[in-house]
Specification:
This protein has three domains: 115 residues, 2-Layer Sandwich (Beta Polymerase, domain 2), CATH 3.30.460.10; 136 residues, Four Helix Bundle (Hemerythrin (Met), subunit A) (Up-down Bundle); 88 residues, Ubiquitin-like (UB roll), CATH 3.10.20. The chain is 33% helix and 20% strand. The strands form four sheets. It has a five-stranded mixed sheet, with helices on both faces. Helix 5 runs antiparallel to helix 6, helix 5 runs antiparallel to helix 9 and helix 8 crosses helix 9. It is elongated and about 95 Å long. About 9% of the residues have low confidence. Its EC number is 3.5.4.19. Catalyzes the hydrolysis of the adenine ring of phosphoribosyl-AMP. It is found in: Cytoplasm.
Length: 435
Amino acid sequence: MADVDHAPLPYAGFLDDWAARLRRFGERPVVGIMLRGSHARQAATEHSDVDLDVLVGGAPYAARRAYLARTPGRLTHVSVAARDVRSWVARLGEPADWAFGLPVLAPARLLWADAYWRRRIDLPVLCQPAGEPQLEELIATLGKVAGARVAGDHLGIRLAAADLARLCPSVLRLANPSVRVASRRAAAETALNLPVAPPGYREDMLLCLGLRPGAPGQLWAAAVRLVTGSLPLIRPYAERIAEAAGTDLAEALLDGRLDSYVAQLTRASDGPPRPRREASAVPAPRAGEWVTVPVPDAPVTGAPVPVSEPPVPGPSRPSQLDPAVAARLRRTADGLVAAVVRDHDSGEVLMVAWMDDEALHRTLTTGRATYWSRSRQEYWVKGATSGHHQYVRSVALDCDGDALLVTVQQVGAACHTGHRTCFFEELPVTGADAP
């Protein structure tokens, strides 16, 4: 935000005049008058109102009155909140509802106080603590987005997605450096720019908050990415989750139940799967597990191949893959090579997917496992939206050049069902024992 010079108050003595006037406020005894907001932060413009708290004994917490004060050359909006002084002090120990769960350090200025209360309310800054990490509420709100999507309730999707985006920073705060905010705008800017966050976090937050245009389906995908991308980041802080929401939720975060539940929400809201264009031994990635990357000059899906020109195995899409590597590949008719994925630590086989030349190039140069979806005709980066990342440790080509062995550091579940590996169903073997 561009720097803006602080606009002065309408005239010298303006605050003193109002303090004297407000000391006669209502029927309850006034014990203090506090300036808050943009004028206290030295950030006011000529359009800013003047926020005053009148602290009284035994009055309702937030009785409000508004004034339009006629001042030289213009009118000034004076916003006055009558607050019970004991409740006002007590609320300083509670999180601010506008701060995205972040702690608050907001400048203030005491204009007047009686002798008894002065030492308790003469505070140069008003400090409020951070909110608890609202993981349970975040998951529940994703369920509301999913429910609205199933019902075709577009307004419900937008409202629930906005609630989800406001909750997400309170959870991610666990993995981020501590920072205090002084205003609602500062809180929003801080929440949007948390350094430890899922891929695409800022854009997804803006979309869900309604600060970027987007269709209901885009909001749903963004909400899924925010939740699934946050879970692996906060897993090391399960003890703090236990303190805020109980041990079961913390254990579910650690043992994978929470990931499985989110995957369940995702599958339930996706409805019937799209018809597959071809049979495949590899389950198609579900929503929340891929990201679409534009493919230059991609072939039209289902376009007939002339009988006189049989397909020649080779790269179907432009690629920057090293020609020496490309020359060793033996591809299928549609230009693909099978990729067997295993865990770096345990050696466990996690999944099988497909790569073309460009997917292999991106995998080798980015360190992130990138595949080609045969059913959807698009690239997808494992974990880019689900948070179940695959960090590539090595790639090996088999002796015939028609398969790749990709060794990865797996974060979360490799299978779209929520299982650690796609190979979790054993088949009975009834053959004779080996000699």
